[in-house]
Design goal:
The chain is mainly α and 208 residues long. It is 39% helix and 7% strand. Helix 1 crosses helix 2, helix 3 (59-68) packs parallel to helix 4 and helix 6 (99-108) runs antiparallel to helix 7.
Length: 208
């Protein structure tokens, strides 16, 4: 009904005190001065309330919420994805150490169509490993496999090792990087090294 404090306070006055027109009414002038302070205080209170909740916090305040939860913003993560991951913090923590925990963590990264298979169905000796097949309905901003693996490692079951795959035609682009030390060798390289073998045999099948 009243948008400003001055109008509300003037409304509470007795009728005789309101007979003087507002521009000359000393009560109205007084309420107008202090009303600005109360109006600003009200806006500040509303702002604090908004910033205190993840769902309505500004981008800058989200960084502070993340720092309090030890969840910094990840490379390539947009504001709304970061907000959603922070909101899912408790759910992910409750499911930590389970398959659902991994899938929930992946969903928070944007991979909402991922699934997991045990590795032993392909190799019985690798019973402590599992394969995460990454999938998403929309292109996620986070596509660095090192970042994805870091989040999975936080919630995976103990003594288990993750591997990653992407089904053909899934429409998911993930960046994988590797590094190696370069050096000099005395081996004759031409016709010697077989691709994928280092360097247990040459092209003729002979030991190197």
């Amino acid at each position: 009904m009243f948008e400003k404090f001055v109008d509300y306070m003037f409304y509470l006055l007795f009728g005789p005190l309101k007979k003087v027109i507002k521009k000359s009414n000393q009560f109205y002038i007084f309420f107008k001065v202090i009303g600005k302070l109360f109006d600003q205080t009200k806006q500040d209170i509303f702002k604090v309330r908004e910033e205190s909740m993840i769902i309505s916090a500004s981008e800058l305040m989200l960084e502070i919420h993340g720092a309090e939860r030890d969840m910094p913003r990840l490379k390539g993560e947009d504001v709304e994805s970061y907000r959603m991951r922070l909101l899912m913090k408790n759910v992910i923590a409750e499911q930590a150490g389970t398959k659902n925990g991994i899938l929930t963590a992946l969903k928070a990264l944007g991979y909402d169509q991922s699934y997991i298979e045990p590795y032993y169905i392909y190799d019985p000796e690798r019973w402590a490993e599992f394969i995460v097949y990454l999938g998403s309905s929309t292109p996620p901003g986070i596509n660095d496999i090192a970042i994805i693996d870091g989040e999975v490692m936080k919630v995976k079951p103990a003594r288990s090792k993750p591997n990653y795959g992407i089904e053909e035609g899934a429409g998911t682009n993930v960046v994988m990087q590797s590094s190696f030390d370069a050096g000099m060798t005395g081996l004759p390289l031409c016709g010697t090294i077989l691709c994928g073998v280092w360097p247990s045999q040459n092209l003729r099948g002979e030991p190197v």
